Amino acid sequence: MKVKNWMIKKVITINKRATVQEALKLMKKHSIRHLPVIEEKNKHSMVGLVTESSLRQFYLLSMLEKISIQDAMISDPLSIDPNANIELAASLIHRHKVGCLPVIENEKLVGIITITDILAAFIEMMGILKASSRIDLELKDKEGAVEEISRIIREHNSEIISIGMVNQSPRKKLHYLRLKKCDLEPIVKSLREHGYKVVSVMN
């Protein structure tokens, strides 16, 4: 999944010569927390970023209308390419503790992706909001185990929506299978017959 498929394309921006007060009003009007800062004569040329949190230091000042965005902005914000994977965007946001990533292509601002957009992408990827069933099992440490499980599930007229995995120990991996809504009993029976340990089910 690419960033370009989940980013906000119609980006609300602010001119670098605007004031902090104008930025706060714009954020409130559009219910947003991030504003890319652009050049006065080129709306695609990003020179910085202001966020709700970065402007908090100015809240108590009485001269908000005189403090320019140029003096308050983050001048070299982290950004991402529109063709990057959504996983990379999530990793950068988590690692650098930021709330958004401006999306830059050929030195032009083409979008912005936020934590909310990334969460929506992962919800879609995991099929969390779809009617589904779930099986948690320990996967045998052998080649072709995932293919075997997939075949068993298909034989019972279901399909895998997503697979998650967590290491419980160096040799023990617990897999979470989210399936198209189905009767789990015959699938679980078949998995156990093939030597898989089913830990829990959810229908």
Structure description:
It is built from 7 helices and 9 strands; from the N terminus they run βαββαααββαβαββαβ. A hairpin with a 2-residue loop joins strand 4 and strand 5. With 203 residues, it is of the alpha+beta class. It starts with 13 loop residues before the first strand and ends with a strand. The chain has 2 domains: 120 residues, CBS-domain (Roll); 75 residues, 2-Layer Sandwich (Alpha-Beta Plaits).
Describe what is shown at a glance:
The chain has 7 helices and 9 strands; from the N terminus they run E-H-E-E-H-H-H-E-E-H-E-H-E-E-H-E.
Instruction: Tell me the strand order in the biggest sheet.
Output: 7-8-6-9
Number of domains: 2
Total DSSP E strands: 9
User: What is the share of helical residues?
Assistant: 25-40%
Note the overall shape: elongated
Order of helices and strands: EHEEHHHEEHEHEEHE
Beta-strand portion reads: 25-35%
Q: What top-tier CATH class of the largest domain fits best?
A: Alpha Beta
Write out the CATH superfamily name of the largest domain: CBS-domain
- What is the CATH-assigned architecture of the largest domain? Roll
Biggest β-sheet description: 4 strands, antiparallel
Which fold name is given in CATH as the topology of the largest domain? CBS-domain
- Number of helices, where a helix is a run of at least 4 consecutive DSSP H or I residues: 7
Ends apart, CA distance between termini: 28 Å
Uncertain regions: pLDDT < 50 for 5+ in a row?
none
Decide which structural class fits the backbone. Answer: alpha+beta
Query: What's the alpha carbon Rg, rounded to whole Å?
Result: 24 Å
Mean pLDDT: 88
